[in-house]
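Bumping with the actual sequence this time:
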Amino acid sequence: MPPEILEPIAAVTTLVALGGLVLVGMKMRYTHLQRTRLGSIAPEDVERLGKDVDALRQELQHVREEVLELNDRVEFTERLLERPKAGDEIDRR
C-alpha cells in the first residue's frame, strides 16, 4: 500500500484506540465510584434500606403525634386539678 494512504489510516486507528482507552478508563472510574459510594452493599439492599428509613420516618411521625396528644391531655388534667372544687369553696366561707 502506498504511504499516503497508510498515514490517514494510522491516524484514524490511533484516534479510535485512544478514544476506546478513554472510554474504558471512564467506565472503570464510574465502577470504582459506584463501589466506593455504596461500599460492598448490593443495590437491592440500598433500596430496601431506603424503604426502611421511610418506614422509620413514618413511625417517628406517629410517635410525635402521640406525644403531642399526651401532652395536651396532661395540660388539660393539670387545668382541671388547679380549679377549686365546689365543696372547697363552701368550707372556706
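The C-alpha cells above came from a reply further down the thread. The CA atoms of residues 8 and 76 lie 90 Å apart.
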